[in-house]
């Protein structure tokens, strides 16, 4: 099931809000992959959440969406994303144009294959060393001063590392 709350001028999104939204989709039969009956917690049926183009500066309690595979939070005001560390099934994450500084929550996301971090305030990619399934990484338009040793990411085929306010590109 996909939850799309893009372009809604949202300032805050938490577990209860998302759960109620999912319930309303089910009640109105708007779910794109709705089966005859939904068993178990409603939030366990959500695989995609899209919250692009809002005014979010914080995420709370997303860890209840245990089967979440795709998360898009482009063009918000996020500074930290601690709650992502518990979403171990994430495969696709889009954090384009936020205000992120650190990447600690990504250390445990072993299933991650696609990650867009472009347009943030990130200085280091050290926390991505354990994301061995990562195939796509865009970290352009950040404040990265040197590249970490990402040679262990042997599946990484597409990568962008342009720095903000500079024309220099990094490669490894």
From TrEMBL:
Query: Which keywords are on file for this protein?
Result: Leucine-rich repeat, Repeat
What Gene3D superfamilies does this protein's entry cite?
Ribonuclease Inhibitor (3.80.10.10)
Q: Name one Pfam family in it.
A: LRR_4
Determine the domain of life of the protein's source.
Eukaryota
Quick check: keyword Signal in the entry? no
What InterPro entries does this protein map onto?
A: Leu-rich_rpt (IPR001611), Leu-rich_rpt_4 (IPR025875), LRR_dom_sf (IPR032675), SDS22/Internalin_LRR (IPR050836)
Signal peptide as annotated in the record: none
Protein name, please? Answer: Uncharacterized protein
